[in-house]
Amino acid sequence: MSFALVDGNNFYVSCERVFNPRLEGVPIVVLSNNDGCVVARSAEVKALGVKMGTPWFQLKDLATRHGILALSSNYTLYADMSNRMMGILGTYSPQQEVYSIDECFLGLEGFRPEDLADMGQRMRQRVRQWVGIPVCVGIAPTKTLSKLANHCAKKGLAGTEGVCDFGAITPGDMSGLLDRIEVGEVWGVGRRLSEQLNGMGITTVRELRDADAALIRREFSVVLERTVRELRGVSCLALEEVAPNKQQIMASRSFGEYVYALDDLAEAVSTYIARAAEKLRRQRSLANAVQVYIRTNPFSEKQPQYQRGITVPLTQATSDTMRLTRAALWGLKRIYRLGFAYQKAGVMLMDLHSEDQAQGVLFAGSAPARPLLMNVIDRANARWGRGTLRLAAEGVRKPWQMKRERVSPAYTTKWDELPRVN
Amino acid sequence: MDTRKKQTHGGARPGSGRPKGEPSKVIRLPVSLVPTVQTLLAAQDNPLGVLSPRPHAPALKLPMFGHKVRAGFPSPADDYVEAWLDLNEHLIEHKDATFFVQATGDSMTGAGIQEGNLLVVDRALEARHGDIVIAVIDGDLTVKRLEKRRGKIRLVAENPDYPPIEFKEGQELTIWGVVTSVIQRIKR
Fold first, then answer.
1. Rounded CA gap, A197 and A204, in Å?
2. Is B140 within 8 Å of A21 when comparing Cβ atoms?
């Protein structure tokens, strides 16, 4: 069996360009929530050497000089385009693992090896025409190699027109190719790991592939040993077609403006809890603990700095928004200090387990859970939009809400924001 | 045999009568309120208890056999429901490749496209001569009729006030999608 890894080129930027063709050829960055850092770059911006995660304010000069355009992230649009892309790719194989918003693995079983590259071209052509997103395809006998093949296709190191099939490369050429790729490009080898590998004299992918597997296991981990085997063409990682339930659920945002008062922080924390609790109920889990944290702006060195988090255990696991909110606000009061300019707050629901494994409470007296009420809230919000039914604790004015000043319309999901043609 | 006819005349009506064992009370209503109250009662098994149309239902299923059915009781008409009609199914062939856009201006009035109409655009279709297409002109999306004749390509408006747009050899035309339906509301 072979695997294909298909991913969208500069996915967020490509989504924006589908509906606003004027952006074609223009250097564009998409900014994170709150217009903070760069989360996506067009090819033109990559060519200028702008790195992922650069704060936008540091780019202002470069942006003026080169006419770089910044957009707020429009996740509503990206998610819809992603669903469409995954739907199209899913018709090519019964086995699909959606790995992230812009990439998926496909299991290619029962196809003739010599047909795979053509099939890759057909996928690429179809996604481009049907949804307007350019994609690259990497094909190989293991997931790790298919990721690498995709990298080669994208950088033009091997393959043709955005499709690279490692199966079509001779072993000799393969070694030469892997010798030209840095070890840090391997799936699962991060910056720290590649520094350690460099220290052992392993700098290229070929050197990692040919390293002593037992030594790698001893010095690092079973996980990296598995990577070595995958690089040799031995498939160790299977497709995960059903996304596993999350072990913890986070909700955090930086604020649109600094927040000083406990009341405002409490509103934000309540809002994040509501969001996280909804996700918790959707995966039919209960949380045993709630973590809350707040912090000032670490980039603003002149201001006094403070950051603190607290974990609040619950007497009984719950998915009830009111009980989770009460716990979170109790925690917030304990970590809040007057006199700081807070820039961010977050909550995390922890120690999750499935609804049907709920444990009874030994000492009675805790408030009853309200599954029916929660069900009503979730359904009303699904029908009439997020926040239609909410706790008063979330506030009304929400001065801390995030800034998205340059966001494009929800072209595909709102009747009054459809693209206009004349 | 026409069982329907037999059922609609006389006999016990399923769903009629009051629940056994519970005392009842007569109330007076203005005639105009009767349908509202009936709808409320009919929807009582709706756990939300809230009545409002969903503004953008993903799939609107209308029964082909439109008999009014009291919730919770078997209807004699159930056996006659043969299919459900879904407007999406009628209008959309390639779900993942279909987008809605809104028409502005009057350049296509001759083709029945009015200002504000909703256009269903299928990007999976190959644009052919005579199709109404969405094309990219100077970075804008525009709706025009595509003409391909003797190697010459033109985008033609369906309104004499607008001249056709000609494409010369080597000039690139980007087709964004093919319009498959025009949706026009005639009553607000």
1. 9
2. yes
Query: B162 to each of A373, B111, B119, B157, B165, how far by Cα in Å?
Result: 58, 14, 20, 6, 9
A337-377 residue pLDDT tens: 998 999 999 999 988 888 877 666 655 555 556 888 888 88
Asked if B174 reaches chain A (Cβ–Cβ under 8 Å), the answer is yes
CA A385 → CA A378, A381, A400, A413, distances in Å? 10, 5, 20, 12
d(CA A262, CA A241): 44
The kind and range of the H/E element at A214 are helix A213-219
- Distance from A377 to chain B by nearest Cα, in Å? 9
- Enclosing H/E stretch for A31: strand A28-31
Task: Specify the pLDDT at position A253.
Answer: 84
Residue A392 has what pLDDT? 84
For residue B135, what are the β-bridge partners?
Answer: B142, B175
Distance CA A385, CA A381 (A): 5
B94 contact A CB<8A? yes
CA-CA distances (angstroms) from residue B21 to A319, B14, B17, B24, B38? 39, 18, 12, 9, 22
B144 labelled catalytic: yes
The neighbour count for residue A43, using CB atoms within 10 Å, is 12
Q: From the candidates B6, B144, B168, B187, which is the catalytic residue?
A: B144
The residue type found at A339 is: G
- Determine, for residues A87 and B50 on separate chains, whether the beta-carbon distance falls below 8 Å: no
Report the largest interatomic distance among the alpha carbons of chain A, rounded to a whole angstrom: 72
SS3 A280: helix
Active site residue B107: yes
- Across chain B, what does the average pLDDT equal? 75
A183: pLDDT strictly greater than 60: yes
E-assigned strand segments in B51-131: 61-63, 84-86, 98-103, 118-122
